[in-house]
Amino acid sequence: MSASDGLYYWEYLQLDRLLDSQRLESERVGGPAAHDEMLFIVVHQAYELWFKQILWELDAVNATMGQPHIAERELSQVVQRLERITEIQRVLQDQLPVLETMTPLDFLDFRELLVPASGFQSVQFRLIENKLGVDPDHRPLINQQPYTAVLEEEHARMIEAAAEEPSLLSHVEHWLERTPFVHWGGFDFWQEYRATVEAMLEREAAIIRQDAQLDEAGRAEQLAAHEATVHTFASVFDRERYDELREKGERQLSHDAFVAALLITLYRDEPAFQMPHRLLTALVDIDEGFTAWRHRHALMVHRMIGSKIGTGGTTGHRYLRQSAERNKVFRDLYDLATYCIPRHQLPELPAEVSQQLGFRFHTDPDVAQASTGPGGS
Ligand code: HEM
Question: What's the domain count of the chain?
Answer without folding.
Answer: 1
